């Protein structure tokens, strides 16, 4: 199942810089591991914002929830999830 996920990061202003850097490094490793597994298909920076839009390819809602709630930045994010399905006018065969 494909999901569009919009994540906006809101780190507290008083979070010590070293702590923030550690969380961000763990987030990167976590995200890159899921990309290698093919579960996190796309990640794009939203221009001008500390935010991304991503496409996840997971087996069900439960797996998506497990992945998102395991993000090191999860406590500092607003997340919006939109389930996706193939559009009847789509012509790419390798994209569903
Ligand atoms: O920087 C972000 O948008 C938050 C984030 C999600 C995965 C990652 O590596 O950073």
TrEMBL record:
Pathway: Aromatic compound metabolism; beta-ketoadipate pathway; 5-oxo-4,5-dihydro-2-furylacetate from catechol: step 3/3. GO terms for molecular function: muconolactone delta-isomerase activity. It catalyses: (S)-muconolactone = (4,5-dihydro-5-oxofuran-2-yl)-acetate. GO terms for biological process: beta-ketoadipate pathway. Pfam families: MIase. The keyword Transmembrane does not apply. Residues 1-89 form the Muconolactone isomerase domain. Belongs to the muconolactone Delta-isomerase family. Homodecamer. NCBIfam families: muco_delta (TIGR03221). This is Muconolactone Delta-isomerase. It comes from Paracoccus siganidrum.
């Amino acid at each position: 199942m494909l999901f569009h996920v919009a994540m906006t990061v809101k780190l507290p202003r008083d979070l010590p810089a070293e702590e923030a850097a550690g969380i961000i490094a763990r987030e990167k490793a976590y995200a890159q591991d899921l990309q290698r597994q093919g579960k996190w298909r796309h990640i794009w920076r939203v221009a001008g914002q500390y935010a991304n839009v991503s496409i996840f390819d997971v087996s069900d809602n439960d797996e998506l929830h497990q992945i998102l709630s395991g993000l090191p930045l999860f406590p500092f994010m607003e997340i919006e999830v939109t389930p996706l399905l193939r559009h009847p006018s789509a012509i790419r065969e390798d994209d569903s």
